[in-house]
Amino acid sequence: MSNRVSRLTSVAVLFGLAIAWQIASLLVRAESVPGEPMVPGWQVLFTQTFLTLSDYWLGGFGVAGIAQGGARTARHRSAARSPADAGCSCAR
Question: Would you say the pTM of this structure is higher than 0.85?
Answer without folding.
Answer: no
